[in-house]
């Protein structure tokens, strides 16, 4: 009887908490809407943002972040950082939001997959891959900055990628997709390669065989996985464009964004491996039989120098892909007739 009463009270508290969260987000969305109305009337050229967009941009990232925190995909600092990243990307463009979700959800699931095998190879393996704020910002910081620039350029809303009509905004869209695809490609390669690959990794700079877990080591399975990870981000962006942009038929073809995502995922993974091979220390520790990222008396150096850690390498890779790849896509993007 006491147990039933305790469960009933627990369900009641959960229901009341959900109601309070919903009421607070409704109040916030209405408050932000009123503020946007005042600002738009003052400046004249700005369009007020719908209260429903405010509500969606606050509520959905909040629900997803709370779920990730409960499943231990994020720690508390990571949850706060993810909430900020999710809010900015959702407010800016729903295609940004769907691309972010494609990266985060698939990466979180793949991180948990094959944990027993990864634990044997990775000395720093964490159950569930719980990410902190540094890891969130190293993967989501560049997309967040691009989303803010996008809102300054065209305001919140969905537009087709069309260099002829919206040059700067289209560039920002491709840069953002490239950064997320780069992060997805690297994560997919790191999580899928060690589990499925039947061959030893090869160092990307010398092509010599190295132990699994070596920074800069690549496998064919890992490279294919990175291509698929980037492709997933591109598909999410493209499908959302189809669902949300009303005048898509008047713009340039949008399907190349899927190919672009795949190329960004593959290229980003290779850039990450190249930087890792040079700027991350990898050594084999005989005492534990695993590759480690620090020197010790029992460690034999494999490659790299202790200049950057994994988070910094991820950040530099996404920055390089975001800056360089849109310029190549601009010249190859098909034009509407």
UniProtKB/TrEMBL annotation:
Compartments (UniProt record): Membrane
One GO location term (cellular component): membrane
Keyword Transmembrane helix: yes
Recorded topology in the membrane: Multi-pass membrane protein
Pfam families: DUF92 (PF01940)
InterPro entries in alphabetical order: DUF92_TMEM19 (IPR002794)
Keyword Membrane applies: yes
Keywords, in A-Z order: Membrane, Transmembrane, Transmembrane helix
Residues passing through the membrane, by range: 20-39, 51-69, 81-105, 220-245, 257-277, 315-333
Matches recorded under PANTHER family: TRANSMEMBRANE PROTEIN 19 (PTHR13353)
Family statement drawn from the similarity comment of this UniProt entry: Belongs to the TMEM19 family.
Name of the protein described by the UniProt record: Transmembrane protein 19
Record organism: Solea senegalensis (Senegalese sole)
């Amino acid at each position: 009887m006491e147990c039933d009463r305790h469960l009933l009270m627990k369900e009641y508290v959960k229901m009341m908490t959900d109601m309070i969260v919903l009421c607070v987000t409704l109040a916030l969305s209405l408050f932000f809407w009123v503020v946007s109305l005042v600002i738009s009337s003052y400046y004249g050229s700005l369009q007020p943002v719908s209260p429903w967009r405010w509500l969606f941009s606050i509520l959905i990232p909040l629900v997803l972040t709370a779920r990730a925190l409960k499943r231990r995909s994020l720690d508390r600092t990571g949850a706060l950082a993810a909430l900020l990243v999710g809010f900015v990307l959702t407010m800016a463009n729903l295609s940004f939001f769907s691309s972010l979700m494609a990266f985060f959800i698939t990466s979180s699931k793949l991180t948990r997959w094959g944990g027993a095998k990864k634990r044997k190879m990775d000395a720093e393996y964490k159950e569930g891959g719980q990410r902190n704020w540094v890891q969130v910002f190293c993967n989501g910081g560049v997309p967040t900055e691009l989303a803010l620039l996008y809102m300054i350029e065209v305001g919140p809303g969905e537009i087709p990628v069309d260099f002829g009509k919206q040059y700067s905004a289209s560039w920002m869209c491709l840069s953002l997709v490239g950064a997320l695809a780069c992060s997805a490609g690297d994560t997919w390669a790191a999580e899928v390669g060690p589990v499925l690959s039947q061959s030893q990794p090869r160092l990307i700079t010398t092509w010599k065989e190295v132990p699994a877990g070596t920074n800069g080591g690549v496998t064919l399975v890992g490279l294919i996985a990175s291509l698929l990870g980037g492709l997933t981000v591109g598909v999410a962006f493209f499908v959302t464009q189809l669902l949300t942009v009303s005048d898509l038929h008047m713009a340039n073809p949008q399907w190349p964004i899927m190919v672009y995502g795949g190329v960004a995922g593959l290229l980003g993974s290779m850039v990450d491996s190249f930087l890792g091979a040079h700027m991350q220390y990898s050594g084999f520790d005989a005492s534990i039989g695993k590759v480690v990222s620090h020197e010790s008396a029992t460690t034999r150096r494999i490659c790299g120098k202790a200049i950057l850690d994994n988070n910094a390498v991820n950040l530099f890779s996404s920055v390089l892909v975001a800056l360089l790849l849109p310029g190549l896509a601009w010249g190859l993007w098909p034009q509407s007739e």
